[in-house]
Design goal:
- By secondary structure, the protein is α+β, with helices and mostly antiparallel strands.
- It has 2 domains: 11-99, Immunoglobulin-like, CATH 2.60.40.1120; 103-173.
- 37% of the residues lie in helices and 22% in strands.
- Helix 1 (101-129) packs antiparallel against helix 2 and helix 2 runs antiparallel to helix 3.
- The mean pLDDT is 92.
Length: 178
């Protein structure tokens, strides 16, 4: 299967999976908003790769690239933004995307939320198990700092991208606090 460079204003998603175990499996391109059997696209994995070429009507939207549920144990869903250019998707236990400006932004946001969540849950487990009140207070303070740091990051990212679907999506998950 060959992959050609995309022409101006064309959106292409070029993906790969880690090994031949996924040969002839379907990959789905699911719109985040208004998904239905008519709006979901699919393609087959061939030689560890897959590709979607998006029509102009599917540009400037957020999609989930995913496989059937059983395969999601090893191939994590990934959010992508369809914009002119080529988005490179690597599906694995920790999927990633790159290639276009807004997909870089989505990937950075994904990495930030993953890091923040990992630290949060580690601290929260320690907090729940801790019996010393002074240590519990210290852990609670760290938890609040992690939440504040993520919130500040998400607000800044949403504000910088308020005029595009990525910023609007991030804002929808992190509405302004009163």
């Amino acid at each position: 299967m060959g992959f050609a460079a995309c022409t101006e204003n064309e959106s292409v998603i070029e993906g790969r999976v880690p090994d031949a175990n996924y040969e002839n499996e379907k990959v789905y391109l699911v719109p985040v908003k208004d998904a239905s059997s008519k709006t979901v696209d699919s393609t087959l994995i061939r030689e560890g790769r897959f590709q979607f070429k998006l029509k102009p009507g599917k540009q400037n939207r957020i999609f989930i690239v995913r496989v059937k549920p059983l395969l999601r144990l090893n191939l994590q869903d990934i959010l992508i933004f369809s914009e002119p250019g080529t988005v490179y998707v690597s599906m694995d236990k920790n999927s990633s995307s790159s290639g276009t400006p807004l997909n870089q932004t989505l990937q950075q946001w994904k990495e930030k939320i993953h890091t923040s969540d990992s630290i949060y849950y580690t601290l929260y487990r320690k907090y729940k198990e801790e019996t010393d009140e002074v240590e519990k207070a210290r852990l609670q303070s760290e938890i609040e700092e992690i939440q504040k740091d993520y919130r500040s990051y998400a607000d800044s990212l949403a504000d910088r991208n308020k005029d595009n679907a990525v910023g609007q999506f991030i804002r929808s998950l992190n509405p302004p606090t009163p």
